[in-house]
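Study this protein:
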Amino acid sequence: MSLQISILTPEKPFFTGSADEVILATETGEMGVLRGHAPVVTGLDVGSLLIRSKEQWKAFAIMGGFALVKNNQITVLANEAETAESINVEEAKTNFENAKTNLENATDLKTKVEANFTYKRAKARYQVVTRKA
C-alpha cells in the first residue's frame, strides 16, 4: 500500500496520485512523509513539493498553503502550484537571479518583505525546473 496524495488549488484539483514518499516544504523546514506517518496538519512555505513513486521523482512548485497527513493520505491545499514541465527554464533562471539581486539591495522593511517573497517564489520555481532526478 502506498500514500495517496491530492494537491488542490483554488482554481482546480491540481494533482492526484499515489506515492512511496512525499517531501513537503513546511514553515519549519522540509518534512518527509512515508507510509504510516503520524497524523499532522502543517503550514506549507513557498517551496518545492517532491513525490517519489518507485524510483521516479516528480517535482512541483508550491506557493504556500496547508497539508493534512492522515491514514496514508496527504491532502495539500496550495495557494498556487506549478509542474516543472510548465516552467520555462531560462525565464525561471532570470527571475531567480533578479529576485536575488533585489533582495540583496532591499533597504527598508516593506521592500525587504516583498523582495523576500519574490525571491522564495523564484527560488522554488528555479529549483523545481532544474532538479536532477
Summary: Residues 88 and 116 are 22 Å apart (CA to CA). The chain has two domains: 3-84, 88-130. DSSP finds two helices and eight strands in the chain.
